[in-house]
Write a structure and sequence with these properties.
mainly alpha; 2 domains; 8 helices; about 70% helix
Length: about 210
C-alpha cells in the first residue's frame, strides 16, 4: 500500500471500530442494528479492496516460508479470513496498520494450519507469532515448548529421569510417584542429583 492508502485504511479501521461499538449498543432497535450492520459491512469491504493485494502477499509469504502450497482460490479465502481476523483485533490505532495486519495474518495462519495440519517452526518464530496475542494459554504453550526443547538436547538415556522430574511437579500423587530403579541405568545417587537439577531447570523454564 502507498502511504496515502495506509492513511485511508487507518481512517476506515477507526470508523469500523466506532460503527461496531454503536451497533452493539442496547438502545438500538432491530432496524437500527440492521442499518449499522450495513455500514460496518460497507466499511469493511472498502478497506479490504484497498488491502487485498497486501493481504495476498502476507499469506503467500507465510505459505512459502512454511512450505505450504494452496490453489489461488484457497489463498484468496485465507487472505479474506486473515483480514477479518486482523480487523477485529485492531484496537491500538497507534500501531502501524501494515505491521498489525502482517503479524495477525501469521497468527491466523498458525491457528488455521495447527487445527488441520502440522506446521514445524523454530521455537523463536513460534514465540514471535504467539506473542501477538499474549494469552495465558499461549504463554504456557511457549514455556512447555522450551521445556521440550531442553529435553531434546539431553542424552536419551536421561529422558526417563527428566520425565520423572517433570511429573514430580504435578499435583496428582499418582504422577509424582516416579522412583529410581535399576532399569534407569544410573546409580541412585546420580539419579537423585540429576532429578533435582532437572526439576530446578524445569521450574526456571516455566516460571
Amino acid at each position: 500500500m502507498t502511504d496515502q492508502e495506509q492513511k485511508r485504511c487507518h481512517r476506515l479501521a477507526k470508523k469500523y471500530s466506532w460503527s461496531i461499538w454503536l451497533k452493539k449498543r442496547a438502545w438500538h432497535t432491530e432496524q437500527d442494528q440492521e442499518a449499522w450492520n450495513h455500514v460496518c459491512v460497507k466499511i469493511r469491504n472498502a478497506m479490504f479492496e484497498i488491502m487485498k493485494e497486501d493481504m495476498l502477499k502476507y499469506v503467500l509469504q507465510n505459505l512459502k516460508e512454511w512450505k505450504k502450497y494452496e490453489v489461488k482460490e484457497e489463498v484468496l479465502f485465507l487472505a479474506w479470513h486473515a483480514f477479518l481476523f486482523s480487523l477485529t483485533k485492531y484496537r491500538n490505532f497507534e500501531r502501524p496498520l501494515s505491521f498489525h495486519f502482517f503479524s495477525y495474518t501469521r497468527y491466523f495462519l498458525l491457528g488455521h494450519y495447527g487445527r488441520k495440519d502440522q506446521v514445524f517452526l523454530p521455537l523463536d518464530d513460534l514465540d514471535n507469532i504467539l506473542s501477538v496475542e499474549p494469552t495465558e494459554l499461549n504463554q504456557l504453550f511457549i514455556k512447555l515448548m522450551r521445556v521440550q526443547e531442553y529435553r531434546q538436547e539431553l542424552n536419551p538415556k536421561y529422558f526417563p529421569i527428566f520425565d520423572q522430574a517433570f511429573q514430580s511437579l504435578h499435583d496428582a500423587p499418582k504422577l509424582r510417584n516416579g522412583k529410581w530403579n535399576k532399569e534407569i541405568g544410573v546409580p541412585q545417587k546420580v539419579y537423585d542429583n540429576l532429578k533435582t537439577v532437572f526439576k530446578d531447570t524445569i521450574l526456571f523454564l516455566i516460571k
